[in-house]
Fold this protein.
Amino acid sequence: MRRFVSRSLPATILAVWIPVLLVLVPALGFAQDGSGSAAAEGSAEAAPSSLGTTEIAAAQGAMADAIEGWLTEAAPWALASVLGSEVWRWVMLGATLVLFVLARRVVMNLLMKGLRALTGRTDTDIDDRMIEAFDPPLGWFVLTFGIYVSLLWPNFGDGVQDVVNHVYRLSVIIIVGWALVRSVNILTGVLSTLAESTDTELDDYLVPLVGRVLRVVIIGIIIVIALQELGINVAGIVAGLGVGGLAFALAAQDTVANWFGALMIYTDRPFETGDWIKTSELEGVVEDIGLRSTRVRTFAKTVVSVPNRKLADDIIENFSRMPKRRVSFKLGVTYSTTPAMMEEAIERIRDLLRDHPEVDQTFWLVKFTEFGDSSLQIFVYFFTNTTDWGRYLSIRQEINLAIMHRFAEIGVEAAFPSTSVYMENPNADEIEALDRRAKALYASRQAELDIHESQTAPSDDSADG
């Protein structure tokens, strides 16, 4: 949009002024007769009082009176009428136009060069951006003002002069809007500098969005002011578009919801480009965050576009923000394992985790937890220092192989699902003796009050890594 505006504004200004100049030639035959002072007064009265046109016309009229009084004695031939106006007025038109063309070059070359030299000595680049932003609009304003002042010299009719005044004010409005659109670059430049100092990349996407919105708002305001200058009732147009706007709003409600979803993602920052995320419907790596949707590359290498409104309402799990990665599993050993063998096996796993350099030593667990259907269950729970998937799997492989070697040294075997059938021949006297012994041991116990510190632990269903 910036390039389009920069290239089209000069052409637009010329396109506005050229028809006015073409209209002046046939209009000269209908110019009003009278002295130069009367024509100047008529021009001053016809000129509107906005953008200083009244003051300019009054100053030009006073100067015209002085020049005409001097020419009456010094050069009477200059008072001859050509195309409805005196010769000296046409000379002044050309001289004024040449003067402002030269002034435009002086402003562009000398003034801007001096300002650039001054801003080059400062530590910030904001002033340099201001010079670059206002350089072309200022030059075109000088040229537009020169064309307007030049056209005040001939004795045009009131109708033609009104057209010149309207075109001048319209040109100034366009130039001011052009300068404001270019000045948005100053704000976005400052915001970009601030965004570079943050760790996230989301604000890098938000800065261009803010710039585009500001440009659209400025262009809209300029269009409204230009329409009012042309005498168009903007309020009536807005009222007429009310019903159509309502229908458009209903049709675009999903689009607006996606825009607000993008705004929530930009501000809340649940993820960034390149993050590995998981939602209720997909899992993958974020490739792009747009205004309407977010593109996610799944692990099957497909690209899924998710509307931002759905992501804003969904539960998002961000794996890229894990400081470390969890390993949790249950290791089953055979029922032939004796208590001493089980204690030694547990200690060997603990020694392994304690000595491994890639295992986080902040917290880990190795516990004999269950009597399973076909095995004795040892619960192993720890974290790796790395979150890289390939390195994470290598660490798990190293620990699993080490457990197998250490279990083989003490004769502990890993269990597998199996069923054993036993033919029982119970001895009633032996059972009764064991029962009496158990009752005596239990009766000899003293009641003790156990005090335990509360612990937070994951559910059994979330025991995967």
About this structure: Residues 1-49 have pLDDT under 50 and may be disordered. DSSP finds 14 helices and ten strands in the chain.
